[in-house]
Design goal:
single chain, about 250 residues, alpha/beta, globular, two-stranded antiparallel ribbon, 8-stranded parallel β-barrel
Length: about 250
C-alpha cells in the first residue's frame, strides 16, 4: 500500500503549462528533457519534482498514458525522487476530467487547485473525491491563491486534526506583472497559526522568487522553485536553467 509522504523540502517545477522554448531554450518539453532536468536539479539539492506533461505539439495535456510513461521514466532514472503530477486545467479541462485523471493514474502525489476543483459547483463530488484520495493514500497538495481559497478549504471540511493537510501558497500570481514579495506570505502564514497538521510550501512569481522562498523557508515552510513561475535569479539575470535556480536557492537556505 502506498503511504502518504510529507512534501519535499525543495520541489522543482521546471516547465508549467504555458511557457515554451520561445520563453527559454532550456525549458523542458519532452519526457526525456524533463528527466534530464530532474537529474540536474537533484544534483543541486532538489528532492522533489512537480511535473507537467506536453503533447506532441508541446501543448499542456492531462493524458493519462503520457503521464504514465513519464512517471515510469522518472522511476527508472531517479527511483528515490518525490514526483508530483498536476491536474491544472488551463481553461482546457473540467473538474470532472481532473478527477478522472487521478483515478485513472493513481499517482502517489498530485497538485490540485481548490478553486478549479470547485469551479463547476460540484462541491459534493469534490468532497467525495478528496476523501477517496485520502483513503487511497494519494497525497493531494491543494493550491491556494488567496483568502477565498482558504475559505473553500474550510467549507469542504478538509482541515482534520488526524490527517496532515498539504498546501501550496502561490505568491504574486494575480499581482501587477505577476511580481511577488516576501510580505505576500503574511496572510497565509497568519491563517496557519490557528490550524494543526499543515504541511505547507510556497512558490512565487517573478524576479522576487528567491527572496520569497527564502522567507518561507525561514518560517518553517517548504519551497517550490523553477521556470514554471520564474526565469530570474535574485540579481535579476535570467537563469541558465532550472538547476541554476535550485543552486541559488540552496546557497541562501543552507
Amino acid at each position: 500500500m502506498k503511504m502518504i509522504k510529507p512534501l519535499p523540502k525543495i520541489m522543482v517545477a521546471p516547465n508549467g503549462a504555458r511557457r515554451g522554448k520561445q520563453d527559454h531554450p532550456a525549458l523542458p518539453i519532452t519526457i526525456a528533457e524533463t528527466v534530464a532536468t530532474a537529474k540536474a536539479c537533484v544534483e543541486q539539492g532538489a528532492d522533489g519534482l512537480h511535473m507537467h506533461i506536453r503533447d506532441e505539439q508541446g501543448k499542456h495535456t492531462l493524458d493519462a498514458g503520457t503521464y504514465r510513461e513519464a512517471l515510469n521514466e522518472l522511476q527508472n532514472a531517479l527511483p528515490e525522487l518525490y514526483v508530483q503530477i498536476t491536474t491544472e486545467a488551463v481553461s482546457q479541462y473540467s473538474a470532472a476530467q481532473q478527477r478522472k485523471l487521478v483515478k485513472q493514474l493513481m499517482p502517489s502525489a498530485v497538485s490540485i487547485s481548490i478553486a478549479e476543483m470547485l469551479s463547476d459547483n460540484e462541491d459534493k463530488e469534490a468532497s467525495q473525491f478528496y476523501n477517496w484520495c485520502r483513503d487511497s493514500n494519494i497525497s493531494v497538495q491543494h493550491i491556494i491563491y488567496d483568502n477565498d481559497d482558504l475559505k473553500r478549504i474550510e467549507a469542504l471540511s478538509l482541515l482534520d486534526k488526524n490527517h496532515s493537510l498539504q498546501l501550496l501558497f502561490v505568491l504574486g500570481r494575480y499581482t501587477k506583472n505577476q511580481q511577488s514579495m516576501p510580505k505576500d506570505l503574511d496572510p497565509f502564514y497568519e491563517w496557519m497559526q490557528y490550524k494543526q497538521n499543515i504541511d505547507w510550501a510556497t512558490c512565487a512569481f517573478g524576479p522576487g522568487e528567491t527572496d520569497c522562498l527564502v522567507e518561507a523557508y525561514k518560517r518553517g515552510g517548504k519551497v517550490r522553485i523553477g521556470f514554471e513561475n520564474s526565469l530570474w535569479n535574485r540579481d535579476g539575470s535570467i537563469a541558465k536553467n532550472n538547476a541554476e535556480r535550485v543552486a541559488e536557492l540552496v546557497k541562501f537556505i543552507t
